[in-house]
Design a protein that fits this description.
Layout lengths: L5 H36 L16 E7 L2 E6 L19 H7 L10 H23 L6
Antiparallel strand pairs: 1-2
Helix pairs in contact: 1-3
């Protein structure tokens, strides 16, 4: 590729960085969903019917050439089934992570997702940049 100016080069590189960030954001969401699936596979509910709504909690908050922000978003559709908080809003993922839901131990969905993203995404991003012609080490 030949660029006629530094401005053209900069525009191209920033565009590729943003495109790669979008691709990486989707990979991050997949990692987050996999960790929810892992928790699902390790526990069968007896006090409620699993809706699968937790799989909708991973969301992209922002994506740009400067970075990616994803998080597990509370959609507000959960309610406590027992105890002092019965009937009150209850983010199921917080309950799972804290180990105070449904008489089971704590999960590690948050921390494992962060660890996996930190381990996978930088190399994934670099491979993406190289695939778009940005020769980085």
């Amino acid at each position: 590729m030949i660029f006629d100016s530094m401005a053209e080069l900069k525009k191209y590189v920033l565009g590729v960085m943003e495109d790669c960030a979008e691709i990486c954001a989707e990979e991050m969401l997949e990692i987050m969903r996999e960790e929810i699936e892992n928790a699902y596979n390790n526990y069968s509910p007896v006090q409620y019917v699993r809706t699968g709504e937790l799989l909708n909690t991973p969301q992209v908050i922002s994506v740009s050439s400067d970075g990616i922000v994803t998080e597990f978003v509370d959609n507000g559709n959960w309610f406590s089934l027992v105890g002092k908080t019965k009937g009150q809003h209850f983010f199921a993922l917080e309950g799972l992570e804290g180990g105070y839901s449904w008489g089971r131990g704590a999960t590690s969905i948050y921390s494992t997702s962060v660890d996996r993203c930190n381990n996978r995404i930088p190399d994934y991003y670099a491979r993406c940049l190289r695939a778009f012609g940005i020769p980085i080490a």
